[in-house]
Amino acid sequence: xxxxxxxxxxxxxxxxxxxxxxxxxxxxxxxxxxxxxxxxxxxxxxxxxxxxxxxxxxxxxxxxxxxxxxxxxxxxxxxxxxxxxxxxxxxxxxxxxxxxxxxxxxxxxxxxxxxxxxxxxxxxxxxxxxxxxxxxxxxxxxxxxxxxxxxxxxxxxxxxxxxxxxxxxxxxxxxxxxxxxxxxxxxxxxxxxxxxxxxxxxxxxxxxxxxxxxxxxxxxxxxxxxxxxxxxxxxxxxxxxxxxxxxxxxxxxxxxxxxxxxxxxxxxxxxxxxxxxxxxxxxxxxxxxxxxxxxxxxxxxxxxxxxxxxxxxxxxxxxxxxxxxxxxxxxxxxxxxxxxxxxxxxxxxxxxxxxxxxxxxxxxxxxxx
Length: 369
Ligand code: F6R
Prior knowledge:
The protein has 369 residues and is α/β, with parallel strands linked by helices. 44% of the residues lie in helices and 15% in strands.
């Protein structure tokens, strides 16, 4: 049932191109518009929304952080992302004009369920993004957009995360389409790029051997840091979470701009630091800033592991290890940038002799608060 793979996690990492394609299937029509029939919140109601709040836990929370960039950019609606476990305890400001999006692979996460119940009590509409048909979270929501990742068995989430991202982009683009936005042309272009993104994920998977080799050489390290900016920041957090869960190593993700506000003090000789580099096209200011971050940490002895777009030559002199990913629109980069981090964590865990599919102390769905 592991389809020839040693672990479910490896199988599920390999299934990502299909999971991504399946999640897009039937949701983009021939003219390049979105048809999200499952979102049964009438367009009229969606036009009245004045704020989006996303609630989720763990990996799903990282998908939500990325969704915020997409939703705010394409719809100009303010969007907050909150850890579901913190949400209702701070008396959040919610009303009928708030769209709450609850993201959950299992659909049974108690923290997320309690957050959405609280939101509905305040009169907000709740849209679930969920991978498990008929589970509690979609049943208690006003609408649902299912991710089509198929069953995810490994405790550490991989293909569910990529499909959560796809669903979040679809919701962001759909909100943009329904509400009308000045980004109409960009939205059409992104929908086109989304349609071919599964192929880009496939290409990344085909180039992972050097990442595996590198991971094996780091098995005795105590700490790995992850840096990113813009949508690369949640990707860095996700890379660190995977490493904690699987390799039981100290791993932290930072927004690269925060380095000088503290974390740079952690940099020491031979410390592995993974840097997710934004596209040099798109928001090129961020690209140049992160290149100077890489220079700074390398000058202090860090071993830099740089994840950068094909054709990005500026990073080459400062990368001890360079992992190439295909060029994508800025907001879609997490779909390709996360994959090497999943492979990295999985391989490090194996090298350390850990149980990949069943990390210690963790359960696949967390049904207690
Ligand atoms: C990380 C992981 C967890 C889950 C979190 C939410 O690899 O698996 O962080 O993402 O417990 O679970 P769901 O998505 O089922 O609500």
